[in-house]
Amino acid sequence: DAEDSASQLVDFVGKELRTKVIEINRRKNRAILSERAAMSEWRQEQKDLILKVLEEGQVRDGTVSSIADFGVFVDIGGADGLAHVTELSWERNKKPKELFKVGDSVKAFILKIEPETKKISLSLKRASTGAWDEVVERMVIGQVLIGRVTKLMKFGAFIHLEGPVEGLVHISEVTNRRIQHPQDVLKENDVVPVKLVRIDKERHRLGLSVRQARNDAEAMGFGFDRNGALIDWPDDVRAEFDLPSRDASKINDELQTATESAIQEAVARDPEPVSAFAQAFADALEQADVDDDDIEGSNDES
């Protein structure tokens, strides 16, 4: 009502305000101003400025400006970005209002910038250090670790390893062949083996590689298709990450296809010596089939 409106205006007495003139009545010597419109325009100008200097992968200081069921809006210096509920904490099933309140100071990781729509996607969980140092202290360069793909970006894939620790597989480290996007090989929620190739303690970042982990991973029981995508996991990894049961026939077919493709590519690169090896390999497989038929025939006669 009028009394409440007057009470709110009292708070502005003596303060400098940014306002926009929205109406002038010279006959009555009256001007109507809007602080809301002025602030809206100012914030848009600030957003345009900050979008020019923001880069994906940066960590920025910010303030929680509002909270919704689907996430948290953070002011990162004149521009609001959204941290989706899945990017707030490594703890599952936590609601935004249980984790933050308006006015909280936070660090925000710049996930994605859309210049055309001027949208900024943030992650608060990727910017928090937490027990990062304690977990990483147990890791060594060259170690093969098992993690889950949490986010695919054009420049690489984020892999969650343990607690607050996450690393980045650059697109060049996803597979041996050239790809346009990590999604050509990986999917979000995939469980993958990665080799630890870099530790940046100052910026709390890990560099990982699926490509360099492949040989060790195959020795551990992982299986890859011809494109480099995971198609088989060791039993202990299936149990730990609650993966579906093994479909042996499907996996064996895909592994055989991958082997044949590898041989064909090798022959194309160096036909003479490799073709001899390939022929010997094919002869061995054929002989194995003959031996199996002989065994089955003997069993039938008995």
TrEMBL record:
Any one GO BP annotation for this protein: translation
Name under which the protein is recorded: S1 motif domain-containing protein
Keyword Nucleus: no
PROSITE patterns for the chain: S1 (PS50126)
Family statement: Belongs to the bacterial ribosomal protein bS1 family.
Cleaved signal peptide residues: none
Keyword Ribonucleoprotein included in the entry's annotation: yes
CDD domains cross-referenced by the UniProt entry: S1_RPS1_repeat_ec3
S1 motif domain span: 57-125, 142-211
MF term (GO), any: mRNA binding
Any one annotated GO CC term: ribonucleoprotein complex
Alphabetized UniProt keyword annotations: Ribonucleoprotein, Ribosomal protein
Source organism: marine metagenome
InterPro entries, A to Z: NA-bd_OB-fold, Ribos_protein_bS1-like, Ribosomal_protein_S1-like, S1_domain
